[in-house]
Amino acid sequence: MIGPAGPTWWRVPLALLDKLPLIEIDSGVTNSEWLIVWQVRTPRVLLAALVGATLSASGASYQGVFRNPLVDPYLLGVAAGAGLGATFVFTINRAGTSDWLVDPLPLAAFVGGLLAVFVTYIVGTAFGGDQSSTTLVLAGVAVTSLATALQTFMLQRNTDVVRQVYSWILGRLSTATWDDVRLVLPYAVVSTTALLLHRRLLDVLRVGDEEASALGTNVRRVRLVVVVAATLGTAAAVAVSGLIGFVGIIVPHAVRLICGTSYRAVLPMSILVGAAFLILADIPGRILDNPAETPIGVVTAFLGAPFFLLLLRTRQVAR
Amino acid sequence: MTSLALENVSVTYSGRRALVDFSDTVKPGEWLCLIGPNGAGKSSLLRAIVGTTPHSGRVLVDGVALASRPQRRRAQLVAYVPQTPMLPPDMSGREYVLLGRNPFVSHFGSEAHHDKAYVNDILARLDLEDLADRKLANLSGGERQRLVVARAIAQEAPVLLLDEPTSALDIGHQQKALELVDKLRREHGLTVVSAMHDLTLAGTYADRLSLIHEGHVVATGTPSEVLRAETLAEFYGVSVNVHTEPDGSIAIIPRRSS
Question: How far apart (Å, rounded) are the C-alpha atoms in residues A139 and A124?
Fold first, then answer.
């Protein structure tokens, strides 16, 4: 609610109150200032919350279902697939799509992301058998490499769109509109609800596939449903906000440090903390280079990469 | 009390036959111990009974084929203690034992009050209350083993399968673990099938032994019928003295070659 243009910060809550029925307050906020608050900043904050919550819940769930604390929504190829889909739209003349009824960019990213996970899942389970956790992750790495290679190939042949594609890849909330919020909301709700319903079963999976199965859990079905739900949320988040990395790994691990490793606590807390984290992480990007913006993907990577290394180190020590 | 019938159970791993046509009937309340050299097929049989490895043949509990029952119901009938259980290091003892209630909790539900009360009762009866709030990573091998058995008991299943329950324990803890299983067997009327390496312990606790060699049953019967020096020499390739105590218990003593 703070930025280079628009009303003084303390007038905003007054203006919000003024909009409620039966309340009349002279907030001193002009109409154009109100538009900045309502059409530019509000959707931005809401989008940050939705994307942060979805990425964190997906990250925590992937870590649970693959019993691998280093997995995040991007490792399975979602990001690379979505990036490939987006690049494809940019190269077929992005400007020419402005009068299309539906913006093809989020859709292409969505399809690319789902396709990548689908391939990862098929390959990973076909060759992995029952002990598919490691194979699946390796398959994700291979799919990511392939998608990135294809994307680089496309960019080499269309150097004029490199800048646009990179600004999308680095992740942005700056162009958030109510349309983006409306686009991501149903996916975020469906995905996080499905994941929350599986929080106890994610605890059961912690004893391994064989024992979880002996305890009466259909491991394959649980894994499939959780992967699909987490991927749905991730793909929708990527489609509207680009690639915002490391959220799915920072947030769940920070939550684990505070409230233990049971998924009954980790999942709901990750959703709340993830929403708050991305709203806060959006602030330095807007202040550092004011009035220009640093992409939020840069901010989260700047925080996330050292965190990831720290995590690797503590795992090393723990062994 | 519940009987366990096995009809022509076979397990094949990528073309290699690990277990061939195993048939047996374990009477209600009986303790059957599977013995045999490494790779004989003991673990494969236990996995086939609990349904975690593909197999042919039929496993019947009280006359009903397990395969025809839903997975949750199967876990209410058969509890399984694996050879090397995966123990999440950050999980507390109580959380771990509570996992045994999984077969009684609906898919998206959570444990009811009586599930937690039941677990508390087990922890108290097995003298594990001190471990309830400690992390699994901070426990000794013997303490972990008792929690794994407690988790299996929490399943309230009439059939208990144990894969090498004592292999990681010293002689004192081996005895304690098996005494615990024996006590629970008598109290709950459990039907027990275990795979064991220590022949003396197997002979001491089991009602009946089944010696498996390269996937086939080569001897079955009471400990004194199966634990014979010539039989063990043939299938284990060992030279032993079989010593029978006045009370009927059997000791297997390896013989030095020179």
Answer: 5
Instruction: Kindly indicate the confidence band of residue A174, based on its pLDDT and cuts at 50, 70 and 90.
Output: confident
**Lowest-pLDDT range, A59-68, A121-130, A224-233?**
A121-130
CB contact B75 to A (< 8 Å): yes
Q: How far apart are CA A170 and CA A162, in angstroms?
A: 12
Q: Which residue has the tokens 């013995």?
A: B35
DSSP state of A191: H
**Distance linking the first and last C-alpha atoms of chain A:** 45
AA letter at B238: V
Identify the closest residue of chain A to B74 by CA–CA distance: A216
| Out of A155-159, A204-208, B196-200, B206-210, least confident range | A155-159
What domains, with CATH codes, occur in chain B?
4-254 (3.40.50.300)
Q: Using CA atoms, how far apart are residues A141 and A76, in angstroms rounded to an integer? A: 7
Give dist(CA A97, CA A103) in Å, integer.
7
Q: What is the pLDDT of residue A149?
A: 93
Closest CB to A261: pick one of B50, B90, B110: B90
What distances in angstroms separate CA A291 from CA A4, A61, A285, one per listed residue? 7, 37, 10
Residues with Cβ within 8 Å of A282's Cβ and at least 6 positions away in sequence, in order, are: A44, A45, A48, A173, A296, A299
Task: Give SS3 for A67.
Answer: coil
Which carries the bigger pLDDT value, residue A289 or residue B33?
Answer: B33
Torsion angles phi and psi, residue B30, rounded to 5: -85, 155
A74 phi and psi angles, rounded to 5 deg:
-95, -20
Closest chain B residue to A218, measured at CA: B71
Minimal Cβ distance to A207: which of B75, B79, B99? B99
Render A248-307 in DSSP notation, one character per residue.
HHHHHHHHHHHH-S-HHHHHHHHHHHHHHHHHHHHHHHHHTTTTS---HHHHHHHHHHHH
Contact A211 B80 (CB under 8 A): yes
Extract the tokens encoding B230.
């010539």
Encode pLDDT of B138-184 as tens digits. Answer: 999 889 988 999 999 999 999 999 999 888 788 888 888 899 899 98
A315, A187 in Cβ contact below 8 A?
no
Pairwise CA distance, residues B159 & B190, whole Å: 6
A215: nearest CB among B88, B102, B109:
B102
What is the ipTM, given to two decimal places? Answer: 0.89
pLDDT over 90 at B217, yes or no: yes
CA atoms within 13 A on the CB side of B251: 8
| Closest alpha carbon within chain B to A196 | B108
Give the pairing type, strands B31-35 and B191-195.
parallel
DSSP state of B192: E
Label the pairing between strands B78-81 and B250-254: unpaired
d(CA A129, CA A106): 34
Q: What is the pLDDT of residue B92?
A: 93
- Please tell me the predicted confidence (pLDDT) of residue A31: 76
